Amino acid sequence: MTGPRVLVAYGSRNGSTAEIAQAIAARLRTRGLATDLLPAGSVCDIGHYDAVVVGSCVYMLRWHPDVVAFLHAHERALATRDVWLFQSGPLDDLAETRDRPLSVPIQQIADRIRIREHVIFGGRLADGAAGALESLFSLGGLAGDHREWPRILAWTDGVAAQVAQRRAVLVLVPA
Ligand SMILES: Cc1cc2nc3c(=O)[nH]c(=O)nc-3n(C[C@H](O)[C@H](O)[C@H](O)COP(=O)(O)O)c2cc1C
């Protein structure tokens, strides 16, 4: 029996969610898990993954369209796998403490998939990011990097431990 395989799929408009996804994938690899990292829009088949981590940026309360499409397209396969969701959302340092529910459509699909966990990480708006809304937010003083790397890595370690543990159970008690 080979080791567990993990997919990290993400949607990112301005690159910061992609960097979080890269850090998560790299950490999972250092924890011994064979991990692929792909933009959600370029995933064709999740059949050979045991676990999937799905991450999205959030703009005006909406998840990246490629991530929403990915969740819908692979809903049945995701429902039979361990799935974790993360979002790179708020532009403040309160991602961990403030209660921010998922938007209704994402919550509905998360319930159907029966995800393991949803986590919110602070996001980043770079000064000078392209786009009219980005400029508006930047002018409003919202530019900054609120990604908490130690928290992201600690969360990833928890995911890695759960993937490895579940695999150990499957090896000990074959279905
Ligand atoms: C125009 C605009 C709208 C945003 N709307 C939200 C939002 O509704 N909820 C949220 O948590 N973050 C919001 N953000 C913050 C982004 O999600 C954050 O910058 C994120 O890290 C961007 O990821 P990306 O670089 O991968 O595109 C918004 C940012 C901008 C510029």
Which SSEs are present, and which pair or pack?
Layout (H helix, E strand, L loop, with lengths): L4 E7 L4 H15 L3 E6 L11 E9 L2 E2 L1 H9 L1 H5 L2 E7 L15 H10 L3 E5 L2 E2 L6 H8 L4 E2 L3 H24 L3
Parallel strand pairs: 1-2, 1-3, 3-5, 5-6
Antiparallel strand pairs: 3-4, 7-8
The structure holds flavin mononucleotide.
The site of flavin mononucleotide has 22 residues, from helix 1, strand 3, strand 7 and helix 5.
Helix count from the secondary structure assignment: 6
Mean pLDDT rating: 93
Instruction: Kindly report how far apart the N and C termini lie.
Output: 13 Å
Using the coordinates above, name the CATH class. Alpha Beta
Number of strands: 8
Query: Order of helices and strands, N to C?
Result: EHEEEHHEHEEHEH
Q: Stretches where pLDDT falls below 50 for ≥5 residues?
A: none
The amount of beta strand, in percent, is: 15-25%
Please give the share of residues in helix.
Answer: 40-55%
What characterizes the major β-sheet? 6 strands, mixed
Tell me the count of domains: 1
CATH topology: Rossmann fold
| Helix-strand makeup class | alpha/beta
The CATH architecture comes to: 3-Layer(aba) Sandwich
